[in-house]
Amino acid sequence: MTTTPQRLFIGGEWTEPASGHYEVIDPATEEAVGLAPEASRAQVYEAAAAAREAFATWSRTRPEERAAILDRAADLMQRDFTANAALAQAESGATTATARGMQVAVGAARFRRYAKGALEPVEEAVPPQINEAGPMGRAGIFGALAVRQPVGVVTCVTSYNNPWANPAGKIAPALAMGNTVVVKPAPQDPLSVFRMAEALAEAGVPAGVVNVVSGSGAEAGEAAVDSPDVDMVSFTGSTSVGRRIAEVCGRSMKRQLMELGGKGAAVVLDDADLDSAVAGIGTTFSFYSGQICTAPTRVLVQRAVHDALIEKLTAYAGQLTVGDPTAKGTVVGPVISAAHRDRVESYVELGRKEGARVVTGGERPAPTGRGFYVAPTLLADCTPDMRVVREEIFGPVVVVVPFDDEEEGIALANDSDYGLIDYVWSGDVARAFRVARRLRAGGVGVNTIGRNMEAPFGGFKRSGVGRDVGSYALHAYSELQAIVWPG
């Protein structure tokens, strides 16, 4: 456990929380990792006011200056890499490889990416237009320029599954564009975000440009959204919470970037490389213990290869080591909390009641006698109307639904409230692309779960609003201004 209670970061000052502290719990050991601050509503408003005051100057800084600060911050995150990864692992329950490679390393890389992003052009010429004389004035040729301007104060509400990459993917592009930020970390693992703030402060970010406020309940997050000083909210989390945030934003027309839930369809066609499909789908069992919105959790498989795929997925799950995430060889760590473990288990039990067959998993493993563990679970004999097929479970649970022909597979994939990332496996690439183009999802992986980190990321339907990643994130944290002049 870290011995010093964490303080809030408001207006460039480390500030004692008005509402005390709460314990952050290691999901693998159930022991306290540290004490996180409970911000009052007034303190969150104070943070937003500090960001508003800092915006006037920060938005006018030279892009090179913003780039240098982001680059130095990445250096400092890398300097303290080992300690940062250990904290992230203790807070989130991630395995060592995930905490190092997918959390801290990706977080630092995103700051480097947007240090370069700060230097990207923000002006785009619009073709000139010839106007005839009329009520609007004399005839002439009018030039135009589309200019991307910062939005203003951005509240960043981050997810618990990655306390480094997710906040970095919001904070870095927002700052690169000249915005100031109020960051509200997930209550389960906020300490890593304060380490990020420390790096930014040491890197020379001016007072008020970055503010971090945390809390165990809803109060701090609600204040960070409804503050009149906030112009935009960037949120990663559940669709239900996203809907409530959108309602508040709508009342004052705050801009939104929402990355919400997912129930990714993995369409496995009868000519697929099943080993490749299993390797991709199987990551749901292990990566973040299934706590990832992009996971291929809903497997739609053509009947000719259904039984073979079930057999291979069962074997894959059986080879995964569940246990202490700090131990060498562990593949599946705990889920984030006891409450979330109970939620995932309740879905597995619901699947049983709905008629699904538990092929593997379904029990509570206790590899160390403590911790919030869920066994990798495969549910077969599922039908499209089952709640386990339709609702996001957010754990190491895969459901399998068979289909007969390509048209049915596409229809099943699209029969969902969600549309974040879907997947297609086929030995015929042209066929796979044909199917991919018909899927109602913000992204489609063809024969891979890999991502291109310059490609736009976001969801259709209830999976979100807007796009980020790469230069698309710079666009997301900016407003377009048109400047017109006579030639």
Automatic annotation (TrEMBL):
Key words, A-Z: Oxidoreductase
Superkingdom of this protein's organism: Bacteria
Keyword Oxidoreductase (UniProt): yes
Pfam families listed in its UniProt record: Aldedh
Boundaries of every Aldehyde dehydrogenase domain copy: 14-482
InterPro entries referenced in this protein's UniProt entry, alphabetically: Ald_DH/histidinol_DH, Ald_DH_C, Ald_DH_N, Aldehyde_DH_dom
PANTHER family with a match to the protein in the record: ALDEHYDE DEHYDROGENASE-RELATED (PTHR11699)
Name of this protein: Aldehyde dehydrogenase family protein
Organism: Streptomyces brevispora
